[in-house]
Amino acid sequence: MLIKASDKTTPKSYELTSESDYWSRRAWLKAAGYFGAGLAAAVSLPVVGAPASPETWQAMLKQKLADSVAWAGSSRDKPTPYEDIIQYNNFYEFGTGKDDPARLSKSFKVDPWRVQVAGEVAKPGNFTLEDILKPHALEDRIYRFRCVEAWSMVVPWVGFPLADLLRRFEPTSSAKYVRFETLVDPDRFPAQRFGRSTISWPYVEGLRMDEAMHPLTLMVVGVYGKTLLPQNGAPLRLMVPWKYGFKSIKSIVKIEFTSTAPKTTWQQLASSEYGFYANVNPEVDHPRWSQKRERRLPNSLWDPNWVPTQKFNGYEEQVAALYDKMNLRTHF
Ligand SMILES: Nc1nc2c(c(=O)[nH]1)N[C@H]1C(S)=C(S)[C@@H](COP(=O)(O)O)O[C@H]1N2
Ligand SMILES: [Mo]
Q1: What is the number of the ligand 1 atom nearest to the C-alpha of 232?
Q2: What is this structure's pTM?
Q3: What does the mean pLDDT of the chain come to?
């Protein structure tokens, strides 16, 4: 993607609050087996909200990856090789080159990590990765994945339905949209260092509530049965298979339920080129290129491997009803 607008915003540093609410405290105590034991007062509890030991969420994730089940709806297209999925990336926090994310994320440390849940919900809070992962069984889902730049892959993701996570926070009736933010940390993301990017961080994406709750919308924690690598958006990234890739925000640290549509990063940069919906649609071209076909990876300059682009990236049957009376040309 080409960035047209430019701005000189200084990166904001993301602050992890050590504050914790009743719900996450309860979840932690439950996980630790303290409920009903009558021992809680007698043992010395770790400070709730202190960084969880990395082994713990990593061990939990490993076990869940081992127990994951194949999803019946997987694409029959041939999966893109793992090497391509982890080496050809868009992740502008590392840089705009396709090889920047793999190259510059080698020493990326996920910990410490918290996910803040805020806005129109009964149960907001700051959650550890263990809190987030604990109740969810994982599924292996092979999805087609189409970037707005007209290349595509077929990726065996591992994750769980976003809807199952969102329900835990009990969104109120005012929650009409979900807004997501990526981590801001110039120590971990080189392109967030002062003056190195025209993007105003954090990277922000959003979905309408019904899109977020759709059974195809996945919270991803793995690829090809392995723990998600930083270049693919570790530890948590979204996957909305019927939308252009930029909707599938990586390395999520905030989930906010809102009553109005959030302003997303690409809309802010070039609203005439990147819309809020960003549904894959071969009938609506990007102002600067055709969306009728896509280069399916792996490919080369000599063999671009063009394939026709499908409406809603081939998921029309499952998602068309979400956009029933909408003009997809104006709501691009
Ligand atoms: N935070 C963040 N999320 C992001 C991006 C980004 O630059 N920053 N790029 C998006 C784009 S344009 C695409 S195509 C996909 C790429 O995902 P992949 O590298 O895992 O294939 O991530 C999306 N999510
Ligand atoms: Mo993209």
Answers
A1: 20
A2: 0.86
A3: 88
Atom in ligand 1 nearest the alpha carbon of residue 89: 19
Indicate whether 309 belongs to any domain.
no
Would 295 be classed as within a structural domain?
A: no
Summarised one tens digit per residue, pLDDT across range 223-239 is: 999 999 999 999 999 99
Q: Binding site membership: which residues?
A: 89, 92-93, 147, 182, 232, 237, 248-250
Ligand 1 centroid from CA 119, angstroms: 25
What is the number of structural domains in the chain?
1
Testing ligand 1's pocket by substitution, the residue of 2, 80, 91 carrying the most ligand atoms inside 8 A of its CB is 91
Q: Which ligand is nearest to the CA of 88?
A: 1
Look up the domain containing 225 and give its range.
8-148+155-277+318-323
Q: Which neighbouring-strand residues pair with 238?
A: 219
Query: What CATH number is given to the structural domain containing 183?
Result: 3.90.420.10
- Domain membership of residue 307 (yes or no) is no
E-state strands within the chain: 69-70, 115-119, 125-127, 139-146, 151-161, 177-182, 204-208, 218-223, 226-227, 237-239, 252-258, 293-296, 306-308
User: For the chain, what's the residue count?
Assistant: 332
| For ligand 1, mutation pick of 82, 90, 218 (most atoms within 8 Å of CB) | 90
Quote the ligand 1 centre to 246 CA distance (angstroms).
5
The pLDDT tens digits for 242-300 are 999 999 999 999 999 999 999 999 999 999 999 999 999 999 999 999 999 999 999 99
Band the pLDDT of 4: cuts 50, 70, 90. Answer: very low
- Cα(95)–Cα(293) distance, rounded to whole angstroms? 26
